[in-house]
Amino acid sequence: MNTEDVLGKAPLFAALDRESAAALRTSITEVQLSKGQTLFSEGETGDRLYVVLEGKIKLSRTSTDGRENLLSVLGPSEMFGELSLFDPRPRTATATALTDVRLAGLGHDDLRPWLTGRPEVALHLLRALAQRLRRTNDVLADLVFTDVPGRVAKQLLDLAERFGTKTEEGVRVHHDLTQEELAQLVGASRETVNKALADFAQRGWLRIEAKAVTILDLDRLYNRSR
Amino acid sequence: MNTEDVLGKAPLFAALDRESAAALRTSITEVQLSKGQTLFSEGETGDRLYVVLEGKIKLSRTSTDGRENLLSVLGPSEMFGELSLFDPRPRTATATALTDVRLAGLGHDDLRPWLTGRPEVALHLLRALAQRLRRTNDVLADLVFTDVPGRVAKQLLDLAERFGTKTEEGVRVHHDLTQEELAQLVGASRETVNKALADFAQRGWLRIEAKAVTILDLDRLYNRSR
DNA sequence: GCCTATGGGTGGGGTGCGTCACAATGAGAA
DNA sequence: TTCTCATTGTGACGCACCCCACCCATAGGC
Hints:
2 copies of one chain form a homodimer.
Chain A: H1 3-8, H2 11-14, H3 18-25, E1 29-33, E2 38-40, E3 48-54, E4 57-62, E5 68-74, E6 79-80, H4 83-86, E7 94-97, E8 101-107, H5 108-117, H6 119-145, H7 148-163, E9 164-166, E10 171-173, H8 179-186, H9 190-202, E11 206-209, E12 212-215, H10 218-225
Antiparallel strand pairs in A: 1-8, 2-7, 3-6, 3-8, 4-5, 4-7, 9-10, 10-12, 11-12
Helix pairs in contact in A: 5-6, 7-8, 7-10, 8-9
Chain A binds a DNA duplex through helix 9.
């Protein structure tokens, strides 16, 4: 997919007609990172937002005693880093490339005139943040009410929706996460997640692959996630 | 505190000069609820946001199997219900009065012209949502990394900051929550929260009162929360 | 080829906390 | 006042999950 199309799906650009979008694109700085590189770190100042063009990025936080947790994994057309832009404070998360990645970056000053001059841009962004807040509240509830295998199942289904490709066997989800990272994403230990995955595989619901799974029985997995 | 001053502290009005604020106020509908009444429920449609003028409101969600959890407790000048306004979907939480309460309500159509005509309003709202998202992410991390007593301590300190009054003994926090509700707020069982509170009281860090606590040793409680 | 590092797989012990069960206290109604 | 219902207080028990310990497989460097 080309840059144009990927950007068009981001909430920021979806609000704009073709002409305006092209104008905004002139302010964009493209960034390339190779796998493992970090774009910005917790505590730094920063007022740029990014849209993933190609590849995947993870957003993580580190607790005082050094333990990590993943807030999210982002793929093409998804936006991040905008909190420091709307609310001028240090970054509260670290952004690291899970794969080689290409990003579109936009600074506060580039965006400002569009926010003030184009109400529909601000409205789209408000909607995007509102949706994120809802999602985050869902995740919160899951942490309280759902056990680890359930959260793993749910997370896999979510990843499948966003990154999955249909095959004749089922849905292949190349998530690019180590089991350690998957564990940090669902708020559990690596071992427990591994055992949950092994159990699912044992039951024939999925097959484990390198940084990927193929979901063979969506329905069963879905039931386990509720 | 009078209505004018309370509203002025809400992010929605903070963006406006005195004159515009007065104009926006004419669209406001005031609502009164008595303790225990619900303003709106999960699943309903709705496109109004509210600012608490007096009293306290809780926002809760119910999981499929009937268990509840509290998203937040809101007091004067705090805003809620705006997600359904920015993102037209059914409400994802239920709003219930913890005390007799007075609210300022504003519908989508009332607000729309201000959002489109006044960029600073939209910017303030974006900032408010960004801050909420950060807070929610903090809560998420706490659920993963902090034990129940720690979460209780943290929650009490948060409530103290927002609703506490200084006395010669310490800080009195009239939170208006039953221990059951406090438990739902920190994502734990009522019993465990009770035991944590009893332990804190035992150590002389606080005194338990009816729907309130007086924090006697802020420092120790703070250390326990980290 | 070999050697090291990184990630995956698996068993077992200890424990924090949820669940159950019941007693005690308090607040509001009649 | 007394009765009732809501809320608080506390012990016993079980289990999900964290932590530790270890081995295996694979990939990448030399």
